[in-house]
Amino acid sequence: MRILGIESSCDETAAAVVEDGVSILSSVVASQLATHARYGGVVPELASREHLRAIVPVVRLALDESKSTYADLSAIAVTAGPGLVGSLLVGLTFAKSLSFARGIPLIGVNHIEGHVHAVVLEAKQRGTPVEFPALALIVSGGHTHLFETRADFTYRLLGKTRDDAAGEAFDKVAKLLGFGYPGGPVIDLLAPYGNSRAVPFTLAKMKGNALDFSFSGLKTAVLRWTQARDLAGEIQKRKKLLADHPRPTAEQWLAITPQETLDLLASFQGTVIQELLRRAAAAAECMGARSLIISGGVACNSGLRAAAIARHLPYPVHFPSPALSTDNAAMIAAAAFPKLARGEFADLSLAASASLPLA
279, 298, 315: which is the final residue of a domain? Predict the structure, then answer.
């Protein structure tokens, strides 16, 4: 059985065809990075317009690359939320139109659940399936959540961020220091050149649910560190480098970044990783997890991957490949297969929800 997945929750228009919940026959992603980079973040109005331009060619290409026709599809899966409403509406409206015109069943998928299935899909491909119950740490620019995940793909929310998501904190700190957008990959690139213990950041202490996250205090601490130093000239050099070279190399960044700033980046990244993993470990122990899933855009972070392995946790840790860590439609199609088996179809009243809950 083949499912066409459509994803448009934020700033990437994606379509994919997945067969039997395991084989990715095609996965096409149209990025809007160049559109939003000049503004230092995603502009919702521009994102919606770019989705409108890209949705038709992206879906056509996904079908062509998979050598599929609409007659080959068992269902069309589409992200219904959470995300930017304007962006969600483009993918959702297109999927509903295809479903109506072609008579193909429609399945609504939660974007966060898609990130879980990105890991489950690749674990099956490797022959090392995820053992349940699993703890899922979904960490990206818009989400930082901990979910108890059961074998029937039902979920219980254990913890979440109370302010900034981890990926958002990475991008805001990078923007503050003049590293451009998206800033998370740049910080990850430069952090190994710094001393992660040079700047002693305070770990967040949460009242109420101890498994919740908070990154606003850490972001403010970086701001205070920056304000205590005269970094105007340093930041201006980075802005000029970005203007001349849209994708600077590590060597180019290092040439204009003092050791003190590299130490700050290493300390910031190390603190974020420590916050993520210590709460994930605590949550896994509470629920008796048999495996840990780490997915979302921040799962690409090399420091996070290395730290998770170095902890020698008493259960396997599963990461998705970089291509399935960031937003994509293969994960949306994969998440639809259990719903297809249960006959959980949507009708044309399916609505976009900016804050669609998973549990």
Answer: 315
pTM of the predicted protein model? 0.94
Is residue 16 a contact partner of residue 324, using CB atoms and an 8 Å limit? no
Sequence-distant (6+) residues with CB within 8 A of 338 are 21, 152, 153
What is the DSSP pairing of strand 12-19 with strand 2-7?
A: antiparallel
Same domain, 206 and 90: no
Asked if residue 142 and residue 165 are part of one domain, the reply reads yes
What pLDDT is recorded for position 41? 86
The total number of structural domains in the chain stands at 2
Taken in order 56, 9, 151, 135, the sign of the CA dihedral is: positive
pLDDT digits (tens, 9 = 90+) for 58-99: 999 999 999 999 999 999 999 999 999 999 999 999 999 999
For residue 88 the two structure tokens come to: 């969600």
Domain span including residue 282: 132-315
CA angle 139/58/352 to nearest 5° reads 55
Flag whether 122 is in a domain.
no
Please say if the pLDDT value at position 359 is more than 80: no
User: Are residues 142 and 234 both part of a single domain?
Assistant: yes
Give the three-state DSSP class for 66: coil
Q: What would the pLDDT profile of 39-55 be if each residue is shown by its tens digit?
A: 888 999 999 999 999 99
Residues 103 and 177 reside in one and the same domain: no
Mean pLDDT, residues 350-355: 96
pLDDT, tens only, 292-320: 999 999 999 999 999 999 999 999 999 99
CATH number (domain holding residue 198): 3.30.420.40
Residue 355 covered by a domain? no
Distance CA 5, CA 47 (A): 19
